[in-house]
Amino acid sequence: MKCLFIINPVSGTKVIQKNLDRIIGTLILDTDVSTVDIFYTQKKNDAMNKAASLKLGDYDFVVSVGGDGTVNEVLMGLINSKSAIPVALIPAGTVNDFANYLKLPTTPDAFAQMIKDFKTIKADVGQEAHSDICFANVLSGGMFSDIAFQVTKELKNTFGPLAYYVTGIKELPAQLAMNLHLKVTADNEYFEEDASLFLITNSSSVGGFRDITPYADVSDGKLDLFIIKKCNVADLINLLKDYRFQIHTKNPMIRYTQASHIKIECDQDIVYDIDGEKGEGFPIEVNCLAGLIDLIVPKD
Ligand SMILES: Nc1ncnc2c1ncn2[C@@H]1O[C@H](COP(=O)(O)OP(=O)(O)OP(=O)(O)O)[C@@H](O)[C@H]1O
């Protein structure tokens, strides 16, 4: 087998990148892989353009090495390439929500085993219709959603995921003041809600919060809409307590639904986050592009 590693050399704390020799060595020794080509990204969109240039038969599979931003670029590139080449992910970012959701291997041996088993699933991708920007994991708006844009690379490389929480807590009063009047159409359902935060997720892991949208499934042809209604500090603390016991979806501050098409209208002018990219302007209209990616996942 022949594979291509697309590597973001500066993602996360760079620990994984330093161990790539072992990962590739184990792959060559323990599996049918005989050729490993390597492409290092140098800037934004390199991973996407490289993946987009591939044709059916160029490789048996592609490996994305990086954080959620790199995963997003590789998946988008592969979709544009129409090459149908399967993709495996090696989580090397700060948070790695998508990889955590998929419970991907973290050791060279386990990664090689996953390639030997070569189990693939047809994974969905979300796409914002006005900008055409896709997301593997999440589109989020409101409270805490612009924190990612305030956290510097240096802070992330030094503190890892903590960088997000430290910045988030510092900003808490301003974040809690946020009140978005949302007009939502989710497939055939329409409702209005005053909200502090909304998430449209493909996987169940967002911002390091595992199972925040516990019913999300990357291959169900649906996206999960999770809204935290306009809340105060006490509401937020209660919600976090409920989250610890995984009963947060029953909290009255939450509105949760699943749909393949979600439209959100809002009069406020806010920046929202699409897998780490900045999105701007309402309405947001998101479609679930069902089963577009062949994703290599662990057998069990
Ligand atoms: N060689 C490079 N130097 C600087 N930036 C790069 C390079 N290659 C890619 N990038 C940028 O890094 C972004 C993706 O970073 P990625 O999400 O993979 O890592 P991270 O930010 O460390 O992780 P996380 O998203 O989990 O915080 C890309 O979208 C691109 O803009």
Automatic annotation (TrEMBL):
It comes from the Bacteria. GO terms for cellular component: plasma membrane. GO terms for biological process: phospholipid biosynthetic process. Residues 1-131 form the DAGKc domain. InterPro entries: ATP-NAD_kinase_N, Diacylglycerol/lipid_kinase, Diacylglycerol_kinase_cat_dom, Lipid_Phosphate_FormReg, NAD/diacylglycerol_kinase_sf, YegS/DAGK_C. The keyword Repeat does not apply. This is Diacylglycerol kinase family lipid kinase. It comes from Sharpea porci.
